[in-house]
Design brief:
34% of the residues lie in helices and 17% in strands. The protein is an alpha/beta fold.
Length: 358
């Protein structure tokens, strides 16, 4: 969610191991106190909600001996390449860590395989996302982020992105034809919209969407940015892709840490995946309730329209599969999500304070 002013959150986190079991004994026979190591983390997000499980795990595992200073809204509203600019800050040593959408890596030559996570209509529920991010394929994608001054730390679950259409809902491929469609920094997303006949256009975090014929966002972002004021109609039962969170570090900054400290960071990310679905659903439900009270409309696509959407984006699958590692990730993800039901259709029915609920 964007739109809040940038803030610096001092969060006690990970173990600074000038200590880690090897602190020198003081004259009284005790252990000398170690000075915590301070790391900085930039995120393009307006809050730390998507990272709270990770941050809490680091605090627990580190015994408060490493501290991370978090800056939200990094490069907010500076332009559509906000994720890329945040990663550049880490590469150039202006920040030690970054938390960005995994989509930022889908155009990188050495990390193209990460794009499998945002394959259209493949990961369509929070449970499916949790399952994929806990699997070996996710660890391969984290390793793929290594290089050019960056080292992958982990992948965390994020919100499910849904389509919103101006004047008429986006139900089948014909509804996308000719529309200028707002997306955020993802080659896979852009290829998907072109396959559906739309014209993708990148917009900044928290940027205006009023001029578009459609856009893609998760419900908490729509509610937080008040995008519902433009009256666009949401597709209730279509999830385009998730927006997982990629945690990466400056390779140089990691060299200042011990092996144990680096392991704590990675373990903290891995432990943040199981059970994240419940937290994300709670955030989405709160956003849905707020949107419904403000008049947001949700319309469901038919089974035939859903099938037509999947058929229309087959060229995107074919394009991704041209890269061997991406194809392997696609095969693994497809097997993992088989049998996992999609997220239930969003509805205002039963929302308190909403007259004539759907």
């Amino acid at each position: 969610m964007s739109g809040s002013p940038a803030v610096i959150l001092g969060l006690t986190l990970l173990a600074a191991t000038a200590c880690s079991g090897s602190a020198a004994a003081d004259k009284a026979g005790g252990q000398s106190a170690a000075k915590p190591v301070l790391l900085t983390l930039e995120t393009t997000f307006g809050t730390t909600e998507d990272m709270d499980a990770f941050l809490g795990n680091v605090q627990m595992l580190s015994h408060d001996t490493l501290r991370i200073q978090v800056e939200t809204d990094a490069h907010h509203e500076e332009g559509p390449d906000f994720d890329e600019q945040t990663l550049l800050d880490v590469k150039r040593g202006r920040a030690d860590l970054a938390a960005v959408g995994s989509r930022a890596f889908d155009a990188t030559a050495d990390a193209r395989s990460v794009g499998a996570l945002t394959t259209p209509f493949l990961i369509t529920s929070y449970d499916a996302q949790d399952k994929v991010l806990a699997a070996p394929a996710a660890r391969r994608m984290v390793r793929a982020m290594d290089g050019d001054g960056l080292t992958g730390i982990g992948l965390l679950p994020g919100g499910l992105r849904r389509p919103f259409g101006a004047r008429t809902p986006l139900l089948g491929p014909a509804d996308y034809q000719g529309r200028t469609f707002g997306v955020q920094e993802s080659k896979v997303a852009e290829s998907t919209l072109r396959a559906l006949g739309a014209k993708p256009d990148r917009f900044a975090a928290g940027g205006a969407v009023d001029a578009y014929g459609g856009y893609e966002q998760q419900l908490p972002s729509v509610a937080g940015n008040e995008y519902d004021k433009n009256g666009m109609i949401a597709t209730a039962n279509v999830v385009l892709w998730p927006r997982p969170v990629a945690i990466v570090a400056s390779t140089a900054a990691l060299k200042r840490l011990t092996q144990e400290q680096r392991s704590v960071l990675r373990k903290a990310a891995q432990l943040a995946v199981p059970g994240s679905a419940a937290v994300l659903r709670a955030h989405e439900k709160e956003a849905r309730d707020n949107l419904c009270r403000r008049g947001q409309k949700f319309v469901a696509a038919s089974s035939g329209q859903l099938a037509a959407l999947r058929k229309a984006v087959q060229p995107v699958y074919d394009q991704l599969a041209r890269d061997g590692q991406t194809e392997a990730n696609l095969d693994d993800i497809t097997a993992l999500v088989k049998g996992v039901p999609p997220e239930p259709a969003v509805s205002c029915k039963g929302t308190s304070g909403v007259a004539n609920s759907q």
